[in-house]
Amino acid sequence: MSIDLTETSITEAVRKTFDGVENERVKELFVCLVQHVHDFAREVRLTGDEWFEALDFLKRVGDVTTPDRQEFVLLSDILGLSVLVDLINHEDGSSTTDSTLLGPFYVEGRPTAENGSDISGEVEGTPLFFSGTVLDVDGHPVAGAQVDTWHSDGNGFYDVQMPEKLHHRLAMRALMATDDKGRFWYRSVAPRYYPVPTDGPCGEILRVANRSAMRPEHLHFRFHAEGFEPLITMLFRSDDPYLERDAVFGAKRSLVVDFVQHDPGETAPDGTHLDEPFQTVEWTFVLARGKS
Ligand code: BEZ
Ligand code: FE
Predict the structure, then answer these.
(1) Is 222 a pocket residue for ligand 1 (Cβ < 6 Å)?
(2) How far is CA 184 from its chain centroid?
(3) Which of 44, 81, 275, 287 is deepest in the core (most CB within 10 A)?
(4) Is residue 214 situated within a structural domain?
């Protein structure tokens, strides 16, 4: 019955409307969502003004969302939901590389690059040489894996955050492939810690909670390989001041790496001699075998 509903009976009435949903999982998700959202409203004695403010907030999240500005993803990130979903779905303590969140700066239209290329897109900064190896759990190389990498510049800005300066070019990101030994390597510029975008509605939440907006310095990676589970992860700089207080809860000790500092004149991994300081980072990623 859905007439003369009370504060308590309305939940059952709404839940029942999902009885006919054929897909059991979809049904479970809606029924549970309704239960929790209703319980939340009852528990906090939600007022009409507060609910309209919340809906207006979500509308504003939608208003600033574009293909290059994912404010809904950011909302999920700052509320810890993105990392929670990742933790629920990835076993702890396995021998494979830990995953972490994707973040809002991954973009589909990234350029492809050959191993050894400079992917900085002519952005200025301290040269960084990254060398990665992709292995399976038995230590065998994963050849032909698709590797996406992306990161900020030395001031903590991604290419999509400075379209005018870069004349709408993408930079500091590429889609690469591992060689027959599972290796991939590139030159770019060293990234920097940075604040998550605070000029949109999510910034209001951070300010009201007096929270730091900073993310520790990191490089992003996303792997796809035939027969393996996809992996989305990051590597964090070991001496970063924000490592223990990531605004989006994504930092993990298992993903901390030394960004090795080199003096001018030392030989870079590509065999060249640079007349400026540069950094090198090496890492081995281990992919889980596909379940399907
Ligand atoms: C990022 O690492 O790119 C990121 C992740 C979450 C929120 C903002 C940025
Ligand atoms: Fe990032």
Answers:
(1) no
(2) 21
(3) 287
(4) yes
Pairing relationship of beta strands 183-189 and 127-135 according to DSSP bridges: antiparallel
For CA atoms 183, 187, 193, 197, the dihedral sign is negative
d(CA 153, CA 122): 11
Distance set, CA 218 to CA 87, 101, 251, 271 (Å): 19, 12, 9, 25
**Phi, psi (rounded to 5 degrees) for 66:** -135, 175
Nearest atom of ligand 1 to the alpha carbon of 197? 8
Domain that holds residue 13: 9-46
Query: Is residue 152 located within the same domain as residue 208?
Result: yes
Residue 132: CB within 6 Å of ligand 1? no
Ion ligand 2 nearby residues (CB, 5 A): 103
Helix (H, G, I), strand (E, B) or coil at 278: strand
Count up the domains in the chain and report the number: 2
Neighbours of 254 (CB within 10 A): 11
- Give the separation between CA 102 and CA 173, rounded to whole angstroms: 14
